[in-house]
Design brief:
2 helices; mainly alpha
């Protein structure tokens, strides 16, 4: 199973320092975050917890894009989250 609705917000908003991110990096929901960022961290943790508890032989992979760009499909423009 691949979770594609996640975001870099789930893993990259509490980290200090540089370098590559890996499965040990998480945004801490207890930090002072916007509701959007907190929700992404909580939702991804819930997906991992569900697969561990109920998934049987199911495997999970998550894509955490830092940004998605493409052509505008309408006249309303918005950003999904703010720092």
């Amino acid at each position: 199973m691949v979770l594609t609705s996640s975001s870099f917000a789930a893993v990259g908003c509490s980290r200090t320092g540089g370098g590559a991110y890996d499965e040990s990096d998480w945004t801490d929901p207890a930090d002072d975050l916007t509701p959007y960022i907190r929700s992404k961290a909580v939702a991804e943790r819930a997906a991992w917890d569900f697969v561990a508890a109920e998934g049987g032989g199911l495997e999970l992979a998550v894509i955490n894009p830092p940004g998605i760009s493409g052509p505008v499909m309408g006249t309303h423009l918005s950003a999904s989250w703010r720092w």
